[in-house]
Amino acid sequence: MCRKIVSALLLLLCLSPVHASSELELNTKRVLILYSYDPSFPTSGKILAGVLSAFGSNLPVIDQEFLDSKRLWDQQSQNLSFQLLRHKYQDRPPYDLVITADDDALHFALRHKAELFAVAPLVFLGVNDIATAEQASRRPDVTGVVEAASFGETLELANKLFPERTRVHLIVDPSISGQADLHSMLLLKPQFPQLSFITQNLSDLSWDEFSSKLAQLGKKDMILLLSAYHDKNTKEKSFAESLALITELTQVPVFHFWEHGIGSGVLGGYVISHYEQARQAGLMAKQLLSGATDTDVALVLESPNLAIFDYPQLRRFGIGSGALPEGYQIRNSPVSLFSQYKLEFSFIISLIVILALSTLYLAKQNLLMKRLSDNLSEKSSFLELLMNTLPDLVWIKNAHGRYLSCNKRFEDLYAAKEHQIRGKTDEDFVSKELAFIFRTHDRQAILQGGPLVIEEQVCFASDGHTELLETIKTPIYDHSSGELLGVLGVARDITERTKNELKIRQSEQKYRLLFEEITQGVLVYNTEQELVDVNAAALSILGKNSAEVMHQKFALDLWFSHCECSAAVSYSDLIRQAFTDSQPQKNILLRGITRHNQQLVWLAVDIVPLPDPSDSSNTKLFVSFNDVSAQKISEASLKLAASVFESCAEGVMITDAQSRIIDVNQSFCQSTGYSKEEVAGQTPAVLASEELQPLVYHDIRLKLSNSGVWQGELRHRKKNGKELSVWQTITAVRDNNGILSHYVSVFSDISQLKQSQQEIYHLAYHDALTGLPNRRFLMEQLAQKIDQAQQASHSFAVMYLDLDNFKIINDTLGHIEGDKVLEIIGRHLTALATGASTIARVGGDEFVLLLSADLNTTEAEDIGRTILKQIEQPIVLSGQRINLSASIGICFYPQDGRQVQDLLRNADIAMYKAKQHGRNSCRFYNKAMADAVLERAQLENQLRLAITRNELRLVYQPQYDLQSKQIVGVEALLRWHNDILGTVPPDKMIPVAEESGLILPIGLWVLNEATRQARVWLDKGLNVGRVAINIAGPQLYSGHLVQQVTCALAEYKLQTKHIALEVTETFIMQQSESSIEQLRVLYAMGIEIAIDDFGTGYSSLSHLKRLPVNKLKIDKSFISDIPGDKDDVAIAKTIVALSKSLGLTVIAEGVETPAQADFLADEGCHEAQGYLFSKAVPSSGIEQLLAEQQSAALLQS
User: Fold this and answer.
1) DSSP state at residue 325
2) Per-residue model confidence as pLDDT tens digits over 1095-1153
3) Where are the alpha helices (DSSP H) in 200-331?
4) Summary count for the chain: helices (H), strands (E)
């Protein structure tokens, strides 16, 4: 803990905003970091950290862009990236400098510098094409740091470290950079004649074939990893995935030329450090922003590579530091004890100074927080509600980076509750590197005095998922004094938005492909009616090239020597009208003689205006057209009616006035299975379903007679006898004289729709896992059953079943196996509960049965016991034998409730009463159960207010040395008096506190109050010995007991020898190793640990020997009947003898008679407490006992 405090304070000193007066403030400068790859690429975070470290606290405004060139880097992707950035930056102030990372970003920036970064100098890093780097640096506004892999040095080092490994496997993928690196490596072969070079080229291998070759490597082999991102089938893996594959399948040393593999299986080598590259590039950028010229900041041709090695890999292959090259660095090495204390000793003076300054700062902060509390108290509840309902992450830090508050969404990020986050910094939850980046962004927002918008890829500790967040950080100031209070952060998940942007880019690609490949001609006009885009089809139809029409006021009607328009106005008027009212003009036909070849041509034209949502004046006009001359020429020969009839997707049947079928279309035949010949001359009755009622026929005839149209749902019988549901429209057709001539019937097959509706109904009312009715179905059925029972004046039973300890099955076997168990239970209930009208799964492992009417209690109980007996039968799943039991509660209508909610609640109450009485049983509801629930709820509600109302108090029972009869300690005992409930006994209060979780704040109050009183006694010069404090189980479960005890001792300046902690035997024998470890820490601090109620649990001697315990307390149940009860005498003697053998102190509680005290003293019991000596008394009573003891001692002397 001390080391962490020192480290944090040192980091604070490093980050404090100290500037030389001559250094130019850069917070108004704007810098863009342009990455070649994506945010999740292993080098991205290191590059950002390196740049930030170069600027220190004098940060400019830094934005980041990712080109994602590993996945999308064809020409269209590059063009789209350029268009996206140009649109994005057109309204922003220009950047003062651009830093590019890797080759693709440099090429992109140079190609588009005039349009995107005209005034900004470029600083590149990570460029391994040295020729390109040197050529680019000749420009007056470009410089940077080259990246060159140390192939020869690393190969020489590998041969030196492993002379027996003579086969060098070069792993490479089809990427251009990977193949270039392979070429460079093979050029080195003549320098190493003792080595055999074997190329594992993923250009020729699939991942499976590659894995097979890796599995064959042995003691003569080692690996030089160049690149492994995709195989011959273009199947991609990330760097981490491919490296994991290599290290899992081989036991040979792996060398790499980039640092991001170290710590994941790479031994090391002379590696390219992207952090160091970025740091040097950042220093160059800082010089340029501060006024240096490009001649002052020259190109760095020597790649800043470092000899870096992974400590676990060095140990794995038995390599000592003496074999490593000069200036090496070792990563992931364990921290020695000397290093820990050396740091603290070196900076102890700084710590003292900082603590003094911190004390002044905290005093000021307390005054500030008091003022904030007064101002915000009325609004805090509303703001808390608002924060917790927001879908965004919201948090507030103070000016020193400590969290003041956060919402529930933010809790998921760190997998901690607000009270666990409050007061802590980022370093308490994330790595130092990531915490440094977070804090840097905080300072940047403070320096620029307004909102800072950044994008961050973060991993949520709650479940491990990652999100891309758009974060806005804003400094908060005191309106009255202008003093900085802290930083407000709001982060929104833009993962989907980013994906959508990618989809838009891909959509734009598809649009461009469609635009160019579509057979329709397309012209795009701007508001000045100038042509700004034209596709190949349009140029082909018009017989022109783009130079003749682009940026001209070209119109289709000018293409004709004489043009006729199908619209009421001219074509030019249509164009102007479309721009004016933004309404599309569809299906316009232009007919005329072309100017270039005097041909008669028809053009089918659509005019579609596309307003700009952000600028209503910036409307574009899309004109699409087809040459429909051929269609027009052949149109006369087409029979439109027949075409529509036969191509209609709906079934069509035409009958005469006597309902005899004249014709049907192909869809009719496909739907019914009848051919045209089979139905010709018949009536529609050939399709009649057996379900069709005469009333339906009557309704059809009536509607056709009155309105000439009938529409509705019918059932048709197909030729094969199967039925289908259809939506049918029948229309009566009359001739020119108004006489009925035909009926036209059109129907659509809606069988699938009906089936889907039935499935939706089933899903809505049934449990997907067991197929049983769900809670919604149960509620409706129960309401109906109540109505039926009320009308028939009979009763029925509601049975509520819950599996006992089902959570253990889910925790041990997993939820999949747990679901299988629930399915089996559902089948058992269906098979057994034949007397139930409804069996429903209402949630988790809970089921409700509605039993048949007029069952008596005996019959209902028989059903319940039958079910319990079946559930007791073992279930075997995946070779495991599972034993189950259940608890059942039963209530009756109407005596136990007349409403749905009342019956379910009362059956649930009865079920929980069954659980309280040992589980695996049935219980019937009675009013006493409800009263008990109400009483417990009232007790819990009052207990929640007990601390704030100062209703809790401690009394103290003295503990005496049986030989000297002197007080050697006191036990703190909790008492509670409530104005409504009166004095509540501990045995009634403590179980409620433990079940409700209130034992944690109550236990903390007891700890603080007892240590406070111990301090008061010491200040008065009174020696009461140790104050024994009882610790409940949940206090250890929480994991905070050591911290709470340490804080209490520190607050009241109390030494550990003045307190003792008592833990019950039953509890301590059930604890996990982590809980026992907390007791070991407290024991090591010098705090006495006692096992309370010893003898009532099941302690084993071997277990007891390993526990951090000083004292055993004999339970009072073994004291009350000694020395008369031989069994209790034997137990007491055994416990005393056991304590002696283990070197423990033994104390007896509940001593009430001199005979008991004498017996215990004779047997060697050290201490005792009980009514014989004193009952539990207030603190003043202890002081009186000590005074009497002192007086008696004076009299004896």
Assistant:
1) P
2) 665 555 656 777 899 999 999 989 999 998 898 899 999 999 988 988 999 999 999 99
3) 207-214, 239-249, 274-289, 311-316
4) 44, 44
- The Cα–Cα gap between 1080 and 1089 comes to 9
In terms of pLDDT, which residue wins out, 610 or 566? 610
Q: Which domains does the chain have, with CATH numbers?
A: 26-149+267-332 (3.40.50.2300), 151-256 (3.40.50.2300), 379-498 (3.30.450.20), 518-635 (3.30.450.20), 641-755 (3.30.450.20), 766-925 (3.30.70.270), 951-1193 (3.20.20.450)
State the Cα–Cα distance between residues 532 and 443, nearest whole angstrom: 46
Give φ, ψ of 1014 to 5 degrees: -60, -40
Sorted by sequence, the CB contacts under 8 Å of residue 661 that are 6+ apart come out as 653, 654, 655, 679, 680, 681, 682, 683, 684, 686
Among residues 106, 11, 101, the alpha carbon closest in space to that of 50 is found at 101
Instruction: Specify the DSSP class assigned to residue 1179.
Output: H
CA distance 1140 to 1162: 14
Judged by DSSP in three states, 586 sits in: strand
Of the candidates 731, 699, 830, the residue with the CA atom closest to the CA atom of residue 771: 830
pLDDT confidence tier of residue 357, bands split at 50, 70 and 90: low
pLDDT tens-place string over residues 744-771: 999 888 888 877 777 787 888 899 899 9
> Which tens digits make up the pLDDT trace of 942-957?
999 998 899 999 999 9
Classify residue 1106 by burial, with Cβ atoms within 10 Å: 0-12, 13-18, 19+: exposed
Q: Which of 136-145, 235-244, 569-578 has the lowest mean pLDDT?
A: 569-578
The CA-atom distances, in angstroms, between 562 and each of 195, 508, 557, 573 are 83, 37, 8, 16
Query: N- to C-terminal Cα distance for the chain?
Result: 50
- Closest by CA to 442, choosing from 399, 384, 483, 379, is 399
**938/997 Cα distance (integer angstroms):** 15
How far is it, in rounded angstroms, from Cα 404 to Cα 396? 5
Q: Which two tokens stand for residue 463?
A: 């479940």
Mean pLDDT, rounded, for 545-570: 75
Specify the 3-state DSSP secondary structure of 89: helix
Closest CA to 139 of 104, 102, 114: 114
pTM over 0.70: no
The answer to whether the beta carbons of residues 623 and 644 sit under 8 Å apart is: no
Q: Output the pLDDT for position 387.
A: 73
Two structure tokens written together for 643? 């075409």
Q: 595-625: buried (b, 16+ CB within 10 Å) or exposed (e) per residue? A: eeeeeebbbbbbbebeeeeeeeeebbbbbbb
| Reported confidence tier of residue 15, pLDDT bands at 50, 70, 90 | very low
The string of DSSP letters for 1002-1019 reads HHHHHHHHHHHHHHHHHH
Q: Which two tokens stand for residue 824?
A: 């089996």
Asked if 1089 and 1079 touch (Cβ cutoff 8 Å), the reply is yes
DSSP characters over 9-62:
HHHHHHHS----TTSPP-TT-EEEEEESS-TTSTTHHHHHHHHHHHHTTS--EE
Q: What is the DSSP string of 485-512?
A: EEEEEEEEE-HHHHHHHHHHHHHHHHHH
Exposed e or buried b for every residue in 1110-1121, given b needs 16+ CB within 10 A? bbbbbbeebbbe
- Average pLDDT for the chain: 85
Looking from the CA of 285 toward its CB, the CA atoms found within 13 Å total: 36
pLDDT category of residue 1183 using cuts at 50, 70 and 90: very high
Average pLDDT in the 126-154 region? 89
pLDDT tens digit sequence for 219-271: 999 999 999 988 999 898 888 899 999 999 999 999 998 888 888 899 999 99
Three-state secondary structure call for residue 638: coil
